Amino acid sequence: MVKRVNRYTSNEFHDWQRKNLPGHFVIQDLDTWAMVISDSADKYEPLFLVELKRSYIEPARWTPFLQDLPNYTALFKLSKRAELPLITIYFQKDKIITDDSEIAIFHIKDVNTAISYDKKIITAKELREGFPDIIIR
After folding, report:
1. Are 87 and 50 in contact (CB under 8 A)?
2. pLDDT at 12
3. Which of 67, 89, 104, 124 could form a disulfide with 59 if both were Cys (CB 3.0 to 4.6 A apart)?
């Protein structure tokens, strides 16, 4: 599956970056964040890095796009330096999320000329009720 080049920018920052940053830069929007359980007993240690993705493709069919390889390379290197797993959570954006909605969880294993991952499909309810263990497993 091949991702089409974005025809439109989504906000003023995207407009600015396309106009002002060199084309050879890897532009990372950093919707990736370290997942931390807010429990002082665990000293707020991060568990993993999360990259959120969404599009109109059903979760069972969606996979990371090869065109996003530069971004995944940067994220994967960040996760390795942080010694944290890199997880992509994908959901379909044109559907209201209910307990039965499917969500794809990708454990990114390696990034070189391709993006290597393990994938599992779970429901929104399973994610909510089993979090964070359902992601870590």
Report:
1. yes
2. 78
3. 104
Element containing residue 126 per DSSP (H, E) = helix 124-130
Q: How far is CA 98 from the centre of its chain?
A: 20
Q: Are 18 and 9 in contact (CB under 8 A)?
A: yes
Q: How far apart are CA 87 and CA 135, in angstroms?
A: 8
The whole-number pLDDT of residue 29 equals 61
**pLDDT tens-digit series, residues 60-110:** 999 999 988 988 999 999 999 999 999 999 999 988 899 999 999 999 999
Q: Which of 52, 59, 57, 131 is nearest to 101 (CA)?
A: 59
The candidate with the shortest Cα–Cα distance to 87, out of 68, 104, 110, 106, is 106
CB atoms within 10 A of CB 112: 9
Specify the pTM. 0.78
Amino acid identity for residue 101 in this structure: S
